[in-house]
Amino acid sequence: MLQAAFERRAPPRVKALHLPPPPPPGGRRGEFCALELQDGTLGLSYVLLDATWAALAAQPSCLPQAGDEVWPLAQGWCAPEPWRQALGLAAVNALTRCVFDRAGFVPPASADSMGHLDLQPGETLGMVGWFAPLLPRLRARGVKVVVVELRPELVGEEEGVRITLDRTALAGCDQVLATGTLLLNHTLSAMLAPCRQARRFALIGPSVGVPPDPLLARGVSLLGGSWVVEGPAALQALRSGQALGAAARKFALTAQDYPGWPALMARGG
């Protein structure tokens, strides 16, 4: 799909890879790297999964250099090593942004941080990943929460929130909010499988910047990511371990808002 979009006009080459500072012990600051292409396009990817950040920092000779072609990096998304997967996802996200920009397509801004889920009192929200800041709002609405996590130390249940390692617990959820990390570790299909009865499945996070069509076709109802509007400011924030802030805005993309990949290719020439 991506290669077809660049048959007539080659994609920009790599300009630089930007890493966040070392993550603090037990902290979540500096979660994303950015692959910068020569035209200024950025692709983001999560680097705190497993030992990804440490692996990237430990082998600078293996990292992309200025002038490198981007395709070999993108192919690393399917590699077995987590650090290559992270670079690959960043490359795919950057290439996708190139296609969007060439077509003049800008996804709609997001109105909230909950994937536009229309949650009603008494419903159960499934979370894949721990979105703790949302809990006060969910409890205030009378929404029950089931969280599927990777970290065993978080497992437990209290005040309407159940945290489990068992993804089949999502089968009873009315709607699901999932982290974009599922794209990185290739577990999206496994998480979608028990969610066939859910009304909506929202996939959100700065890593969500890949071509939308395959995800929408597989049952993802909304893609929520970060749309960089000021590249230099975004890189400065990233390198200092800060939030992107005004350098990016959140977007929310559904099938109703999206013209489709063939239309984007036709527009971009």
TrEMBL record:
<feature type="domain" description="DUF4213">
    <location>
        <begin position="32"/>
        <end position="95"/>
    </location>
</feature>
<dbReference type="Pfam" id="PF13938">
    <property type="entry name" value="DUF4213"/>
</dbReference>
<feature type="domain" description="Putative heavy-metal chelation">
    <location>
        <begin position="115"/>
        <end position="252"/>
    </location>
</feature>
<dbReference type="InterPro" id="IPR025251">
    <property type="entry name" value="DUF4213"/>
</dbReference>
<protein>
    <submittedName>
        <fullName>Uncharacterized protein</fullName>
    </submittedName>
</protein>
<dbReference type="InterPro" id="IPR007161">
    <property type="entry name" value="DUF364"/>
</dbReference>
<dbReference type="Pfam" id="PF04016">
    <property type="entry name" value="DUF364"/>
</dbReference>
